[in-house]
Structure formats: C-alpha cells, structure tokens
C-alpha cells in the first residue's frame, strides 16, 4: 500500500505539516542539521525552553503580543518534540505543550479563553476564541484534533476562521492531550463533542447557537463525521484528511501504529489493532449525518482514498462536497495554504448563509 | 570579503527571505525541483498567473479575504520572479507585481488605501493601512524598500505593526518599483520621505502626527537613516540590515552589482559604482539624526558589519540601540521571526511612549 516506509526522522520532519502549523523554517533547518548526538526530542524541547525564555523576556518588556507568540511557538516545539515518541518522553512533552499554551492563551489575539467542562469523572479542557470586531452573536466552529494532534495546534487555522468572523472552540477528547491520562481512545468521541455543544449553546450573547459547525483533521476528521452524525445541532461538518473505519491498518507507518497503541493504552500492537478497529468505525451512524459536509483528501495520502468512497456510500443523507487533491499527502500538508483556505471559506459560508 | 560567491539560482532561492516574506514553502520546493527547461522567471510568473486566477475565483465565490491573500501572494511571486533579472523581464515582473498588489490592496485586512502624492514631475504611489480596532489617532510607521524590494513586500511586517496598534505607510521612491521609470536611484531619497510625511501629518483624525517613525530594510535602512537625519519630524528610526556608505562594493554579489547598475540606469558597472558611491553616503548628514534609532545587523551579512561602527561614529546625537545577530545573514532573513518581532516591538514602544 505504501510506496516507501519512512524512517522515524523522515516521518517526524514533515516539512509541510510543521511549517503550516507554524514552526519557523529556521528551526526545521536547525533540527535537520543538528549534532547527531542530540536527539530529536531533546532538540525540540530545548527550543521550547528557549521560546519560553523569550516569552518571559517579552512580558518583562511589556510586549504582550510577542510573549503570546513565543509561548505558543514554544508549545508547538514541545508538540513536535514528542508527537511520535511513546515512552516517558510523550507525557513530558505533552505536559510541556499544554503548559506553554496555557501561558500563551490570554496573550493571543484574540485571546483564547479556557473553559473546563465536567463530564463523567473527568474534565474537558477547551479554549474559546471570539473575533473581536464581528457583531455578536457570531457563528462558531468546533475544531477537533486527531491521533497526535491536540487543541493547541489549530491556532493558525483558528486565525483563518476568526478573520472570517467565525469563533473557534478547541478541546482534548478521549485519547488526546490533557484527557489521555483519564480517558483513552474510545468509540464515543461524539459524546464529548456534544458536551461541548451543550455548553456553547448557552453562550447566547456571544455565539449563534444555530450556527455551530465541526471540523477535524486526520483522525479528527473521523471524529467530526461521528460527532455531526450523532448530534444534528452541528450545522456543517469538515473532514480534513479523515477516514471512516480502521478495519485494516497495514497502510499505517510503523510510528503511527505505535501511536495507536499508545492512545488505546494497549500492551501490544495486536491488542491495539483490535481496539482501534472496534472504536473507529463511523459506518453504523453515518446515515445520521444530515448537515452539509466537506471532505478533503490527498490522493497521495497513505490513508487510502477509498475512505472517500465509503463516506459517499454511507453518508446517504448529507450533501457532500468532495475535494480531492491529486498531489496531496496526508491532510494535504504539502500543498501550502490553498486547501486550508478552501475549508475555512466553505465553513464560514455554511455558517453564515 | 565573501566566503563564497553564490550562483544566480542560489542567490535567488534565498529560503529565509522568501519564506519570511510570505511565499508558500510548497512553491519554493517546486521552484527548486522544477523542470530545468523552465526558467526561474517563467516559473514564478506562472505562479503569479495561477494565484491571480485563484483570487478571481475567490471573488466570484464571495471570499474576499482569500481573494486578497491570493492577489498578494501572486504579487510576491512576480516580485521574486524578476528581482534579480535586469533585462525586459525586470520591468514585466515589476508591472505584474504592482498590478496584482493593486488588486489585493482593498481586500487586505485591514485594507491598504492607495495614496498618490505629486512630487516634481512624478507621483509617489503609496499605501496606508490603519489598525481597525485601535483608538484614533494612531501612531504610524513609514516603511521603506531597498535595492530590489518595494512597497508591496512589507505586508507581513505591516501586520506585526498593525496588531501592535501602529498604522503603516509604504511607497516607492527613487530607483524603486513604480517610480523607477521616472526617477532613478538618487541622493535625495529623504525628500520623498518628507513629502510623504507632509501628507501624513495632515491626516489628524487618523494619525498622531507627532508619533511617526521610519523603518527601512537593506538599502531602505540607509534611506531610513537619511530620512530621519534630514527630517526631525520622524520620532524613531530603524535600519534593518542597512548601511552608511558605498565607497567600496567589492563585497556585493554579482547579481546585486547588476541590480545597482539597473536602478542607477547606468550603461556599465563602472559608471554604476561611481553613481552609487556618490548617491549612497549618509555620513555628511548623520549628525542630524536625533531620534532614537535601532540598528539590526547580521554578523554574517555580506554587507560589512563595520557599517554599524560607522553609524556609531557619525550618528553622534542619536540614542542608538545596536542589535547584532552573530549568526544573521543579510537582514537576518535566516533567523526566522525573532529579529522582526524585536524591531516591531521596539518601534511600537517608541511611538506609543
């Protein structure tokens, strides 16, 4: 299925993804050319430390915008330090990422307001950002992370939506970021998305409760399909490089399989595959998807393009927009801003018509 | 003086500069890996065409933000198509750049309002951008292009200032962009900057006339020093990789020498060097510089770091902040966002204290 299995370093040094998510090019060059005695993890965690120091200096000098930027870039450096390691580094990097983002949040423009939502025996930690100059109430997009992406990484995409007059809400659900310690990957991500929605619809002064959409990237695309299929309060749905089911996982790269094992809290890969296959299957509920839905997929994604056919086969009650990029890799990270702008424009249009 | 003379392709494919000025990474990869039968110029002009088409499609679909972005990126593609060619391609690319930016301007956020200012027998074409959510009147920064950079390329730097509450004004002066056909490089750039200032101080509802600064990049840094030295209405000055004089030009790369020849409208390099040496010398007036002044220089810039010593020697009446980056190349383009953020914060602080 795959043409070539990348080395860990090749899989981690995904230039399109890291740059489009906001890491400076200078850091990628430095990571590539680093002393071979310095591990990938240590390199990026050291960058995170530097950026935190720069953020603190900016605060001391009264430069709040710059401080917010450095704390956020530091958070991204910690993210990409840990995102494909599965020992104690994972947790250390995740904690560092979350901590730095918490520091960045009030300094971002517009700020990200932290929201804690109790559910079962745990808490959903999320962030709401509202465009400053738009007339309220405004529409809102709920943004979902994926297998190793979390609420902190959608910042640049949020900015695209915010300048189009759309508020954004991000959070960690089962198997993700700050929730992983309490709840592993599960088959009911939609319940967490609905819990978020229960909260958002109460913010009637700020948000237009009948204009809330959902967008997810990679595994988050799967979650977006599930969430919109199960909760028809979502008025628009975007699956950005997502998929329908995981009956087979031979196409996955070795480190990605390790990632599945990690987020399912499995003792071995065999167990992980069974758990993933059982939890990740939206076919039984996809007929419930009734809102307009946008599917972006790169034809050169290792996640098979046949997933798009499955969306068409099972989502029989939704108006689908299918956007296939012939040269796109996973999530079309290699194609620059065009696919992201198309998704942002489509979602903004659907939520404001 | 130089360690290595770059090939034309190496000089043009300046990753740090092109990325920090906003060209998508995917385009740089495509430029590097293009069919050898396609010239650098044709590759980028074709990208400009594609981006214009995408901008038009976005307008047709009602996506004004996206249209503005594509027209602007198209303008940048045309800029970097032509910036180091000196035959008819130069003028063709310049015209394309200006035309695409004119289309982008009203769609940018905040918009860039075109201003035409008569001077002598020609017209200064400039653009004013004003932060939308700041209380007026706001401070303003006048941004100056350099040897092959023009009013269109400062967009991302403008955004840094705008989010810090500072309006921006960019224009083409002698030897630059849309003015080059009328006026070649000259020794009185400051007169054009003062003409701009004469206009800006009349906009009393919008701009705080006693809080206007000037910043220039590369040769624009030289112009900034000259402009602030000759017109003490400028309250702060930034020289971003600038220089004081051009008595010697052995350090310049071959294509940069061609660029000097082009903007001085010289028949040969010998004539060009004489004209440049005569026109580009701020030492005689630098004692007139009295406003706070920030000097950024990369120690690995081919423009000698001794230029900083000359600023110190001649600018005896200004409070200087000297910021030398040991690993910085020309304008520190290779270092990512940090130097740009420092300049933006310093300038915003000086203009709001």
UniProtKB/TrEMBL annotation, chains A, B:
InterPro entries: AB_hydrolase_fold (IPR029058), FrsA-like (IPR010520), FrsA_esterase (IPR050261). It comes from the Bacteria. Pfam families: FrsA-like (PF06500). Keywords: Hydrolase. This is Alpha/beta hydrolase. Belongs to the AB hydrolase superfamily. One of its GO terms (molecular function) is hydrolase activity.
């Amino acid at each position: 299925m795959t043409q070539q299995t990348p080395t860990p370093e090749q899989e981690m040094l995904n230039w399109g993804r890291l740059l489009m998510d906001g890491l400076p090019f200078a850091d990628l060059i430095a990571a590539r050319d680093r002393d071979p005695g310095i591990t990938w993890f240590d390199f990026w965690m050291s960058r995170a430390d530097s950026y935190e120091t720069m953020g603190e200096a900016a605060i001391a000098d009264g430069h709040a915008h710059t401080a917010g930027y450095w704390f956020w870039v530091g958070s991204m450096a910690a993210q990409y330090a840990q995102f494909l390691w599965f020992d104690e580094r994972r947790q250390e990097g995740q904690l560092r990422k979350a901590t730095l983002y918490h520091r960045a949040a009030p300094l971002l423009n517009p700020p990200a307001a932290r929201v804690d939502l109790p559910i079962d025996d745990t808490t959903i930690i999320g962030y709401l950002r509202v465009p400053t100059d738009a007339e309220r109430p405004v529409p809102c997009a709920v943004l979902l992370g994926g297998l190793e992406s979390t609420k902190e990484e959608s910042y640049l995409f949020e900015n695209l939506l915010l300048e189009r007059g759309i508020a954004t809400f991000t959070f960690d659900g089962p198997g993700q970021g700050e929730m992983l310690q309490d709840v592993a990957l599960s088959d009911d991500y939609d319940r967490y998305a609905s819990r978020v929605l229960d909260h958002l619809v109460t913010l009637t002064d700020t948000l237009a409760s009948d204009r809330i959409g959902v967008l997810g990237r990679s595994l988050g695309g799967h979650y977006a399909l599930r969430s919109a299929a199960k909760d028809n309060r979502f008025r628009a749905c975007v699956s950005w490089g997502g998929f329908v089911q995981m009956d087979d996982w031979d196409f996955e790269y070795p480190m990605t399989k390790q990632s599945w094992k990690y987020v399912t809290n499995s003792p071995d890969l065999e167990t992980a595959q069974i758990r993933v296959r059982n939890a990740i299957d939206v076919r039984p509920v996809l007929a419930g998807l009734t809102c307009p839905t946008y599917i972006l997929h790169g034809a050169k994604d290792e996640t098979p393009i046949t997933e798009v056919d499955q969306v068409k086969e099972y989502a029989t009650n939704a108006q689908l927009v299918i956007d296939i990029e012939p040269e796109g890799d996973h999530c079309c990270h290699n194609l620059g801003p065009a696919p992201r702008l198309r998704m942002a424009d489509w979602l903004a249009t659907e939520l404001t018509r």
